[in-house]
Every structure is written in structure tokens, then in C-alpha cells.
């Protein structure tokens, strides 16, 4: 689909795209960059023009390569049944988080600046692309400032969140399946940016805008 090819080209050129999920799900739009193209300017864009906490989406296979479960999987395996960790992890109907750990690159001072955040993302991307997972714990520390979110193994056949939607696009367009995202927040209302305003924002910046229904139709 030409629209997907154009979005993939934008990501490879270091430009962000916008991805809306569904009216009957979160009804939210993410501003997204390809992880291998992230820099301090892109981090600033995500933080200042999207507004929600910056997160990094990685594929299920990448999570396995790094030896990472989701936080809920980890807690269910290792936490005391009577601990506060178990209590806080009790499922909420309709809520299916895929958060894993938070991390920073060890050579960073704190990890929270735009420059250091970009470095953490790029270093992790390089480690995965070069197949050097054995150095993961040596090069990175947890907890840190960057949350990792791990996609489901079957992607859109198992879940249709922003994570699976963008990873499905990346994988089907031959991109390295690791992206950096932030949800669009309306600074005036304090709520998620509406679909209409997100589309208008994308048009003003000349950004590719993709809907979840389009991706489900193609890859679901």
C-alpha cells in the first residue's frame, strides 16, 4: 500500500509519523520516530509537541533476545503472592499493558536530558542490530528514565494496541522494529488530542497519518 510505503520512507528519513488507533479503543494518536534515527531534536519534538511520557516499543523477539518479560509477567513469576507488587499488578478490565522495564545507558550522567535520552535509545538500537545482547547489562542500567514496551508475539493477531500497530507496519515495510513514541496531548484541554485535531496537526507539519483500521485491514 502506497500510504504505508510513504510512511516507512518518512521514518527512514528521520521524520516522525502519526498513528491513530481506534475510536472504540483509546482514541489516541501517537507521534512516532524510528529508533535508529532518533536524536536530541527528535526527543525534544516528542516531549514538547506530543507531551505524554516518551516510550520505546520493541518487538517480542527483541524482548526475548534481551531476556526481558513484561512487568506483569515478571511479577507473576517472581513476586511474593502477598506483596504490594502483586496487588498493584492485579488486572484492570480492558487494560492490557505491555510495559517491561525502564532503563538508561550506563555512561549517561542521569539519562533524562534530550541528549542522553537519545543516546540511550540509539545505543540500545545499535546493540540489538549488532546482535550483542550479551552486553546488555554491562551497557545499561535499570531502573532508568526510558520505559520499554514489548509487543506481543503474534502482533495484530493477539492485540491491536499502538505497539502492535506500528511494529506490524515496521516489519512489513522492512524497517528495524524499534520505535520511539509519545501520545499526543492537547495542552489546552489536558486530554488526549482528538482525531480531528491530530489530523490537522499532521497536515500543518506535512506528516504521514495512519489509522489503526487501515493497518488491521492490511496486516491483522
From TrEMBL:
GO molecular function annotations of the record: 3,4-dihydroxy-2-butanone-4-phosphate synthase activity; metal ion binding
Gene3D superfamilies membership: DHBP synthase (3.90.870.10)
Listed GO biological process terms: riboflavin biosynthetic process
Domain of life: Bacteria
Top-level EC class: lyase
GO cellular component, one term: cytosol
EC number: 4.1.99.12
Keywords: Lyase, Magnesium, Manganese, Metal-binding, Riboflavin biosynthesis
InterPro entries noted in UniProt: DHBP_synth_RibB-like_a/b_dom, DHBP_synthase_RibB
Pathway participation: Cofactor biosynthesis; riboflavin biosynthesis; 2-hydroxy-3-oxobutyl phosphate from D-ribulose 5-phosphate: step 1/1
PANTHER family the UniProt entry points to: 3,4-DIHYDROXY-2-BUTANONE 4-PHOSPHATE SYNTHASE, GTP CYCLOHYDROLASE II-RELATED
Its biological purpose: Catalyzes the conversion of D-ribulose 5-phosphate to formate and 3,4-dihydroxy-2-butanone 4-phosphate.
Protein name stated in the entry: 3,4-dihydroxy-2-butanone 4-phosphate synthase
Originating organism: Litoreibacter meonggei
